[in-house]
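for the writeup, i need someone to sanity check this before i put it in the appendix. the sequnce is what the collaborator sent (i think, or maybe the updated version? ugh). structure was predicted straight from it, no edits. if anything looks off just tell me and ill rerun, i have time this weekend
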Amino acid sequence: MTPHAAPLTTSLREDPPARPAGPNAFPPGGAQERLTDPDLVARIGEHHAAIRRALPYLVALLAKSTGFHRHRNPKLAALCEAGEHLADRLELRMDQEERELFPALLAAGPLGGEVRGELDHLFRHHRRTRLDLARIRWLADDFAVPSWADLGYQTLMEELAELEREELAHASLEETALAPRIVARCAA
């Protein structure tokens, strides 16, 4: 992730900018098994695009809330650092998936061991992401909005909860639809 811009200069009491819109990237109830390989790659790619649009907004909200409310919540500095760290890791992993796993799935024929190794990296990334999300949830006090919070702080908590939901759904889709297809192609 490139370094984020300086905190926004407007007061947190003003309405925050509109959240970048993201697709409802995941079909309900097992429909992902019916997706073709290109459709699955496109669906995951839509999620990646939505996350890439949302991360700079979220990182800016973290920095702004930390600067404005640090005196009220001593965990905000650690929350900001954890959020920035997760954003960096997510961007790197999405790039790697798009460079390695997507072309492999779309290629004809069996896949080699290097793709299986990349899949192992994917599972390790998901485990680490779940830990990072749990830490962020703890630092954010389960996304609770205290009585002193303004609209910016409330928006931050909503965005963090949405990022958690999106990332857990994304990991589930990759583990239940993408990974089995790659494993089957590696075994072929």
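The chain has one domain: 35-187. The helical segments are 37-69, 76-106, 113-139, 151-187.
thx in advance!!
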